[in-house]
Design goal:
2 domains; transmembrane; Growth Hormone, Chain: A; MFS_trans_sf; single chain; 15 helices; mainly alpha; 414 residues; globular
Length: 414
């Protein structure tokens, strides 16, 4: 297992890219919490008002993903990164000085033009790796995502306790900007050498790649994050009923560590598993977690779901990179980010309704059933796509198994 990861991290520029993008992703993961704390503690408004700002930011991210991806395909990586960094610097510096109404609109614009660290990392992984290393690299990317969820919000909470909400907002903005500038300096390749030579200047129309197979993968991406968002709320509701809500952070941490471990093990396996199977298993093991009624049992109950989380997300990213042609990979990864953002936005309200209508255990059931429905839909669509795919219409991906991985700009600082 160690050998496979050592080989991936030894690829020129890969370790630097993962390190810099982790900084940006951890800050982006914490941006909603930073805004929530500012609205509640800094402006003295309600959590409902804070939810409005968080919702505006999330909606902007969901809409902006494919737009930024398309701009990257057309204008290049550095242009888009530096433009989005400039927007983030202006927004986060302005947050402590904006009244609520203006903050609401500014948050939407900031989400629309959020630094696309996650999507760019996925594009670069697809370009910098061969088929032999790609699944392992995407497993590392999923582990990186889990680490960002463990680190980012925790740092914001500690910062708010030690400093002011305004200082936390500035810190988050500085980290987002630093990560975006770092990726721009590295300027990782977004197309493999063979892809660039074969399809230089050609942007395929959407009908060539946004077909049944891609819709299947995006559906499963949506289902996975719907489950994850819902599970967080179900954990809090279960422990609140037991009078142990202060232990929620421990349960969430156990979930995250389990996901990291699952992602590392999966990335070292010799063969991949179908996305629909992993998502279906994730849904199945989530449902019985509702039987736990105190924090030690809940920690044990979420381990199974945690182990399957990073593998599921990594197979989604791998599938998108394989189905999207090089000339449209930016837009495709943007669509993936939008699907996952939409899942995060829907998961909490869906599970909240289930909890209000029944018991906290109903939240785990609702989250698991949503994932099962997405897995079933994605599996059926994938099967249909495999039956109807034709060589003339199938998106082409240029594979050059014997080539050396593309190098990050040799002049870029490490």
């Amino acid at each position: 297992m160690v050998t496979r990861y050592r080989d991936v991290l030894a690829l020129p520029g890969m370790a630097a890219l993962l390190g810099v993008s982790l900084l940006a992703r951890a800050a982006i993961t914490a941006d909603v919490l930073a805004l929530t704390m500012y609205v509640v503690l800094g402006l003295g408004l309600s959590y409902a008002a804070a939810g409005g700002v968080a919702g505006a930011l999330t909606a902007g991210v969901a809409l902006g993903g494919p737009l930024l991806g398309r701009m990257i395909d057309r204008r290049g990586l550095r242009t888009v990164l530096l433009a989005t960094v400039a927007v983030q610097v202006v927004f986060w510096l302005s947050v402590p000085h904006l009244p609520y109404g203006i903050l609401l609109g500014a948050a939407f614009v900031a989400g629309l033009l959020m630094v696309p660290a996650q999507a760019v990392t996925r594009q670069a992984i697809a370009a910098m790796t061969t088929a032999e290393h790609r699944r392992t690299a995407f497993a590392l990317e999923s582990v990186q995502g889990e680490l960002s969820y463990l680190v980012g919000p925790a740092v914001v909470i500690v910062g708010a306790a030690e400093a002011s909400p305004s200082a936390v907002a500035w810190g988050v903005g500085a980290a987002v900007a630093a990560g975006g500038v770092g990726i721009a300096v590295l300027d990782p390749p977004l197309r493999a050498e063979g892809e660039a030579a074969a399809g230089a200047g050609r942007r395929p129309p959407r009908r060539e790649w946004l077909g049944t197979g891609m819709v299947a993968v995006l559906t499963m991406a949506f289902g996975a994050t719907t489950l994850l968002s819902g599970v967080d709320l179900a954990i809090v509701a279960t422990l609140q009923e037991a009078g142990q809500v202060s232990w929620a952070a421990v349960v969430v941490a156990v979930f995250g560590v389990s996901s990291v471990a699952g992602g590392l093990v999966y990335g070292a396996l010799p063969r991949p598993l179908p996305t629909w199977l992993l998502l279906g298993l994730l849904g199945l093991v989530t449902i019985p977690a509702g039987l736990a009624h105190d924090w030690p049992w809940l920690c044990a109950a979420v381990v199974g779901a945690g182990i399957l989380t990073a593998p599921t997300l990594s197979t989604v990213a791998d599938a998108v990179s394989r189905l999207a042609p090089a000339g449209a990979r930016g837009e495709a990864t943007g669509l993936q980010s939008s699907a996952q953002s939409a899942g995060f936005a829907l998961g909490s309200p869906l599970v909240g309704v289930a909890i209000d209508a029944s018991v906290p255990a109903g939240g785990f059931a609702a989250a698991g059933l949503a994932a099962l429905a997405a897995a079933l839909t994605g599996g059926l669509l994938s099967r249909r796509a495999s039956r109807t795919r034709h060589p003339l219409t199938e998106p082409r991906r240029v594979e050059v198994p014997d080539r050396e991985p593309c190098r990050v700009d040799a002049g870029a600082p490490r």
